[in-house]
Amino acid sequence: MTSDRPKTFNLVEISDVHYSIGGRDIFKGLTLEIPRGKITAIMGPSGTGKTTLLRLITGQIRPSRGKVWVDGQDVSRLSRQELYLLRQQIGMLFQNGALLTDLSVFENVAFPVREHTDLPEALIRHLVLTKLQAVGLRGAHRLMPHELSGGMARRVALARAMVRDPDLLIYDEPFAGLDPISMGVILRLLRKVNDALGITSIVVSHDVDEIALVADHSYILAGGKVVASGSPKALKNDQSALVRQFMNGLPDGPVPFHYPAPDYYSDLLD
Amino acid sequence: MSNTIVKMLSDTLAGFGAATWFFFRILGQLPQALLRPRLIVHQVHNAGALSLVIIMTCGLFVGMVLGLQGFDMLARFGSESALGSAAALALVKELGPVVAALLFAGRAGTALASEIGLMRATDQLVAMEVMAVDPFRYVVAPRFLGGIIALPLLTMIFIAIGIFGVQLIGVQQLGVDQGTFWSQMRGSVEIEDIMEGLIKGCVFGVACSLIAVYEGFTAAPTAEGVGRATTRTVVNSAVMTLILDYMITAIML
Prior knowledge:
The complex is a heterodimer. By secondary structure, chain A is of the alpha/beta class. Chain A has ten helices and ten strands. Chain A has a six-stranded mixed sheet with strand order 6-7-8-3-9-10, sandwiched between helices. In chain A, β4 (65-70) and β5 form a beta hairpin. Chain A is globular, with a radius of gyration of 20 Å. Chain B is mainly α. Chain B contains nine helices and no strands. In chain B, α4 crosses α7 (178-188), α4 packs parallel to α8 and α4 (83-121) runs antiparallel to α9. Chain B is elongated, with a radius of gyration of 21 Å. Chain A binds chain B through residues 58, 60, 83-85, 87-88, 90, 92, 94-96, 98-101, 111-112, 115-116, and chain B through 118-119, 122-124, 126-134, 138.
């Protein structure tokens, strides 16, 4: 693998990134760093480009300006083959699990191992069952994805994401739509996996309280830039209006409650 | 008006360009896909074996209608005995490949397009990309190969059942002499005719499978997008099958 620059303290570095879709600017000079071995949360109101940021980090899209460095490599300059090599070090948990619907739970978790290695079947079985045991679903290894609840699917997807012991684990809205028990399980796993495997984690989430329990560092994105960063506790005490609105879930503020519209009364009387 | 026509033309050309690029990307992954025969066999089963009932039923009824109409037409010229060869030539050279391809597009093509479209809508294709697995190798190429293997086989089965249907009506019901029926057929159907049917089956297999996987892969990741991809698969496959049929017939006659 070609390394563009020496490996640094930060596993991911985003530097002055600009990106737009259909004439709409998503990022206007985004700069942030994800330190190795830590859990970093990316938060922000809907539509601020949190998932787009994950797509930039995994090389699914390229910035129109700026650099995205992952493990010392400029992602936007990698060939398809180099990108695939880099992605082998990355595990990603999708919002809906994104399990392959024609494969069983066991085969879903075994999928990345079978695709990238020639390990003997006994070893694959050992690996898969170990990871499923870690997420508490060893007993469900014969089930098909449609037989799983939302929380179980998310846990299987987590087992799949970590089956090859990646350097970077990315969670896209891991708590969305989960009941409190499943949410608690995912929270505990998130911290446990990060500490036990010594990996770097990026968590994109709206759930301020849950994130405060696990994140070492948080960024809040708005208007295509980082508007605040720091530990979850520091962000709770941040005095800027937007951060206060977001952290406390206030309906109105810098992010308006109402979609832009003409005057209410004149609209009603028309 | 002229702007609309220019836009339609440029969109059509862009569509052809994108499909051609897509086709070459599949070709690039074929050697890798061939190393996984299990995936291909699974897709031949999905596209082929699961279409058998509809192919056989339709083959039988097309044959029976051909028997009735053929007998009626030939009786006007006093040449009912030519029913075997006329019906067999029609089935082998035209009806078999074309009707089988249209049925294949309706049954297997739509299934392929909606399956791949739903994989797109539920992030399964993106998940593969992020796991450094090329969806062209794992999803698209095996399904494409499954389709191009299945359709020529289905075409041959359609023709065989169709001929049985003609025989059922012509010989068993309308009283055409059995010996004449088969001997006329053997005397007039050449190996070139069978090759023409087979070549059409193969070409339609490539076209229908390519359209199905292309429409599914490029579907918008929404319920509406998957629905539209499925509709486009049937319409484009039918139109392309008939255009290609004319071109192959004009070349081979």
